């Protein structure tokens, strides 16, 4: 979290938490978002049907960033409705910490910001994920152009699994 970001209001939902559980602090949740190798993106088709897909991404400057080709289903869905849910965590029942981020996917086109994000992508995922920046997009010779989106959380949830179970809500202003 950068020094200019305001920490979210954080509250434990006792209805879905073990007795004695405490709210998980936001920096712990942000670390899960930073370190996750894979995220699941939920968008909505123009006709209202849900669409879910796994993808890679980068948590940076208070937002979860992902990219997609302009003709891919998720890009077409976002053109009609930019509201999304991104999830990540451990696919286990009795251990781990899952995170759900709700927000709006806004396209990133600033050359300097995209260049910084391209460096972060490569640092996280390796040289196979090297991107150049051109015309407000990521570019790879083999794959072509990809639009980059930032999702600043409006609300996020953290689900602690195992003892204690916990559900923490984070509300952003």
Automatic annotation (TrEMBL):
Pfam families reported in the protein's UniProt record: PNPOx_N
Span of domain Pyridoxamine 5'-phosphate oxidase N-terminal: 27-154
Family matches, as SUPFAM superfamilies: FMN-binding split barrel
Region of interest (Disordered), ranges: 1-24
The keyword Lipoprotein is annotated on this UniProt entry: no
Residues spanning the membrane: none
Keyword Oxidoreductase included in the entry's annotation: yes
This protein's name: Pyridoxamine 5'-phosphate oxidase family protein
Record's signal peptide: none
Keyword terms, alphabetized: Oxidoreductase
InterPro entries: F420H2_bilvrd_red/Heme_oxyg, Pyridox_Oxase_N, Split_barrel_FMN-bd
């Amino acid at each position: 979290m950068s020094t200019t970001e305001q920490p979210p209001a954080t509250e434990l939902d006792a209805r879905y938490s073990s007795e004695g559980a405490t709210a998980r602090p936001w920096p712990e949740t942000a670390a899960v978002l930073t370190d996750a190798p894979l995220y699941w993106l939920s968008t909505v088709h123009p006709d209202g049907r849900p669409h879910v897909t796994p993808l890679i991404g980068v948590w940076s400057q208070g937002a979860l960033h992902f990219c997609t080709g302009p003709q891919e289903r998720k890009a077409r869905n976002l053109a009609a409705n930019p509201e999304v849910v991104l999830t990540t965590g451990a696919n286990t029942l009795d251990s781990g910490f899952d995170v759900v981020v709700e927000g709006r996917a806004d396209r990133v086109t600033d050359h300097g910001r995209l260049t910084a994000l391209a460096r972060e992508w490569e640092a996280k995922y390796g040289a196979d994920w090297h991107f150049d920046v051109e015309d407000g997009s990521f570019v790879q010779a083999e794959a072509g152009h990809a639009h980059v989106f930032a999702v600043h959380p409006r609300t996020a949830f953290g689900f602690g699994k195992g003892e204690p179970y916990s559900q923490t809500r984070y509300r952003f202003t």
